[in-house]
Design brief:
- β5, α4 and β6 form a beta-alpha-beta unit.
- Strands 1-6-5-2-4-3 form a 6-stranded mixed beta sheet, sandwiched between helices.
- The protein has about 170 residues and is an alpha/beta fold.
- The longest helix has 18 residues.
- The protein contains 5 helices and 6 strands.
- Bound molecules: ligand AR6.
- The site of ligand AR6 has 24 residues, from β2 and α1.
């Protein structure tokens, strides 16, 4: 089975897919950026399930590079897959943790049976990962991860992100 990679410019909360990936933080309790947008549009069911995860399996929070699914609430999707990207720092190479976000999200998607998955550019906002490098890691990891997901759709918020991902696909 081959996975098709597609690019869209826009707001990920407007996408219709089986699973929407959230660039969350370890608390799973919300934040700004994509995370804020997903909880706003998805409604309180998502946060309620995140709180239950914190009360059960993830008492210390979701570790960086891991992924976990919840309901998608009012979004046009069946699931939200929350993943925690690494904060970028010039003093330590955390690339494998960023790659892990994509691998782990696809693994969770496979467990769920999701066939279409939308990803934001994880870590490129508040976590300051340089866009070109983030795009290289995102596209390279998806290309090299065996999965039954048929379409991986990168949903890029602005021109700069869209162009960086286009260059990697080109
Ligand atoms: N749809 C698609 N992409 C978006 C959207 C949207 N609605 N909104 C922002 N982006 P960020 P991070 C882009 O900061 O860097 C949160 O507070 C944005 O332009 O959302 O992984 C969490 O709770 C950027 O390119 O995530 C964490 O604390 C990309 O999404 C922290 O931020 C990622 O930006 C995670 O930081």
């Amino acid at each position: 089975m081959t996975t098709t990679i597609t690019l869209v410019q826009g707001d990920i909360t407007r996408e219709s897919v089986d699973a929407i990936v959230n660039a969350a933080n370890s608390s799973l309790l919300g934040g700004g950026g994509v995370d804020g947008a997903i909880h706003r549009r998805g409604g309180p069911e998502i946060l309620a399930e995140c709180r239950r995860l914190r009360a059960s399996h993830y008492g210390k929070g979701l570790p960086t590079g891991k992924a976990v699914a919840t309901t998608a609430g009012n979004l046009d999707a069946r699931w939200v897959i929350h993943t925690v990207g690494p904060v970028h720092t010039p003093t330590e190479d955390r690339s494998d943790l960023l790659a892990s976000c994509y691998r782990e999200s696809l693994r969770v998607a496979d467990e769920l049976g999701a066939r279409t998955v939308a990803f934001p550019a994880v870590s490129t906002g508040a976590y300051r990962w340089p866009m070109d490098d983030a795009a290289r890691i995102a596209v390279g990891t998806v290309r090299h991860t065996p999965t039954a997901v048929e379409e991986v759709r990168f949903v890029l918020f602005d021109d700069r992100a869209y162009e960086a991902f286009s260059r990697q696909l080109g």
